[in-house]
Amino acid sequence: MIGWIILAILVALVIAIISMYNGLVQSKMKVDNAWSQIDVQLQRRFDLIPNFVETVKGYMTHEKETFEKITALRTSWSNASSVSEKANLDGELSTALKTIMAVSENYPELKANQNFSELSEELRNTENKISFSRQFYNDTVTMYNTKLQVFPSNIIAGMFHFTSRDLFKTQSNEARKNIKVDFGNNA
Description:
single chain, mainly alpha, rod-shaped, disordered C terminus
């Protein structure tokens, strides 16, 4: 009789371990999927940028520094490997794009340009998708990281070397600032 009780306890323990392990694996896969959704949207934005910049360049010749920064950020994106690196690049790019959008208000002929209007709308839609994807990713990472911390799943996580993931957050002070638009009017 004691043998059956011990066997039942062992079976229950094995089932609990398998259940916790599978829960951790599923959470890790959700984090990976959430990151890939951000990556897809950020890549979509980077794919739109060359056409957008070319459209705007003809009207905003004095914004050369901003265009060069966008080009450099786009190049840096392909070399970035960690979530924090991509988050910083994303923040800087968002700031540069907001600057161009704000400055474009001073160019009525640019705002009337059909290509500019379509690309602006695509970028706005993409920015909204990126924002949603960031939030979803951070929520998913928080749930996963919580599973790594709470008892008893933290024991299983430690046994099978599950590691915590970084949240998607900008570390750039520039990305947190309000955009300053200077039309060069000193009068």
